[in-house]
Amino acid sequence: MTAETDAQPASVVIVGAGQGGYQTAASLRDHGYRGRVTLISAEDALPYERPPLSKAYLKSDGHAKGEEELWLRPATYYVRQSIDLVGGTVTRIDPAARTVRLGDGSTYDYGHLVLATGARPRTLDVPGAELRGVHTLRTARDAAALRASLAAARCAVVVGAGFIGLEFAAVARESGCAVTVVEALERPLARAVSVRTAEHVTRLHRREGAQLLFGQRVVALHGDRHGGVAAVELADGLRLPADLVLIGVGVAPRTELAAAAGLPVGDGITVDARLLTGDPHISAIGDCAAFPQVRSGKRLRLESVQNAVGHARLVAERLTGAPRAHYDELPWFWSDQYSTTVQIAGHDDGHDTEMVLGDDPDAFSVLLFRGEDLRAVESVNRTGDHLAARRLLDNGGQVRPGDVAAPGFSLKGHLASLGGGTAAAVGRAMS
Amino acid sequence: MPKITYVAVDGTARTVDVPSGTSVMRGAVFNDVDGIVAQCAGNAQCATCHVYVDDTTLDRLEPARPDEDDLLDFTACPRRPGSRLSCQLTVTEALDGLIVHLPERQK
């Protein structure tokens, strides 16, 4: 697409005030943008960080954290930066008139529109999914409800062994709750990590006393006579007692507004390499955006802080007259479970060789190659490896399987042998 | 309540009250002090809350844990002896009066 794009539009309206929406507004001001910035939030809260919601925020030991501990910035910041925070739900985009309409009937004109609508948790289509004590986890409000439930829970069932489910399972075990994780596939994190890392995660949870059931489907949730959840029924007839159920079966991108406005959508709002939708005055970023990966050409939709922030910065640069040809930032991700940190650098879209660094079964990295090409590195309690991998992959992944096989190989050492990269390269890898 | 002083690159200093138990990073964010990004929300993942602890108050800190130490090799501005990640510095009464200098950039 070569349509003329907006630079220095008179106003920017951002739909969605999660990490990506917030970062777009902040980066616009960082780049000296002086037009009107309107950040529309469907949540009744200042923009906040989501990563702690499935981790520290759930813990009620000591003091229960308040929502203000999650704020990306305090209220004074938005005043100081002339960022108009508007509470409400956008019900319609009119691309011809370049307006958005909110549920209360108010409308906002835009020079450029940024869709940062995020995603919503998928639910289970089984009887009993509406029972009290059945949770999903996406927002601070969800987390507060889950935390309150957990404080009184004795046995929790987690449906889905993804990151959200496993992080919650760890917190629940640490608070003394019995935990069973039910996963339809044969291993945890099946779409996200290698078999080796998945097996470690399985061992970790079992060692901490959680029960993990694989290849099992939930067919019904059963309640007690007060309307609270009491049991989870599996396809093989097994009934697991539960006074708390977390459904962690992934999210669906919020694409409805874009689709209703006639924009192309698939698994996410379809954008080009500059994160523009089919309309040159509308961008989409973060969890809701399906963007083409430069290296593979494949369309990708990622759910991470790094992705949301990276997208937001690219759009802000484009709107302030410093466009990049394409979005090409290295994906990275982390998950904390018990005292273990799992970190992923790069995106594994198919590998044929796995090489392992580290002799400690509780601290190792898995290097994933396709042919001679390093695609991704998974690190378990090896932050140094993860950071070196991020820089190496960002610089083109100058590691070959033959290098790794050499005695005494380390990612940090290899990075140093290549010259370590300049300060600018470091900044790029870390940003 | 412990007082923490944040000194910007241009020398402007701001002293704010930060409750014990919260981090030096959170103290900056909550008080709208510019110069700390904290992209990963204080999880020791991103090295964008780098600060230089003033020489006069450096001896009050516990040494960095290994993951913080690793991250300090990857900050946007050069690592110096006083370099720390402010998300890993938990405020206590013993840190009352801590002075941290903000780097030129975090990313």
By CATH, the architecture of the largest domain in chain A is named: 3-Layer(bba) Sandwich
What is the CATH class name of chain B? Alpha Beta
Relative strand content of chain A: 25-35%
CATH names the topology of chain B as: Ubiquitin-like (UB roll)
InterPro entries (chain A): FAD-oxidoreductase/Apoptosis, FAD/NAD-bd_sf, FAD/NAD-binding_dom, FAD/NAD-linked_Rdtase_dimer_sf, Reductase_C
Domain Reductase C-terminal (chain A): 332-413
Protein name (chain A): Oxidoreductase
Cofactor (chain A): FAD
Give keywords.
heterodimer, A: 431 residues, alpha/beta, Enolase-like, domain 1, 5-stranded parallel sheet, globular, B: Ubiquitin-like (UB roll), 5-stranded mixed sheet, 20% strand
What does this protein structure show overall?
Chain A: Residues 332-413 form the Reductase C-terminal domain. Chain A: It comes from Streptomyces flavofungini. Chain A: Its cofactor is FAD. Chain A: This is Oxidoreductase. Chain A: InterPro entries: FAD-oxidoreductase/Apoptosis, FAD/NAD-bd_sf, FAD/NAD-binding_dom, FAD/NAD-linked_Rdtase_dimer_sf, Reductase_C. The complex is a heterodimer of chains A (431) and B (107). Helix content of chain A is 25%, strand content 29%. Chain A is α/β, with parallel strands linked by helices and 431 residues long. Chain A folds into three domains: 11-120 and 252-319, FAD/NAD(P)-binding domain; 123-249, FAD/NAD(P)-binding domain (3-Layer(bba) Sandwich); 339-430, FAD/NAD-linked reductase, C-terminal dimerisation domain (Enolase-like, domain 1, 2-Layer Sandwich). In chain A, the strands form seven sheets. Chain A has a five-stranded parallel beta sheet. Chain A has a five-stranded parallel beta sheet with strand order 9-16-10-11-12, with helices on one face. In chain A, a hairpin with a 2-residue loop joins strand 23 (332-337) and strand 24. In chain A, helix 8 (383-394) crosses helix 11 (423-430). The two termini of chain A are 28 Å apart. Mean pLDDT of chain A is 94; it is low at 422-431. By secondary structure, chain B is α+β, with helices and mostly antiparallel strands. Chain B has a single domain (3-101), classed as Ubiquitin-like (UB roll) (Roll), CATH 3.10.20.30. In chain B, 12% of the residues lie in helices and 20% in strands. Chain B has helices at residues 24-30, 66-71, and strands spanning 3-7, 13-17, 50-53, 83-85, 98-101. Chain B is globular, with a radius of gyration of 12 Å. Classes of the chains: A alpha/beta (431), B alpha+beta (107). Chains A and B meet through helix 2, helix 7, helix 8 and helix 11 of A and helix 1 and helix 2 of B.
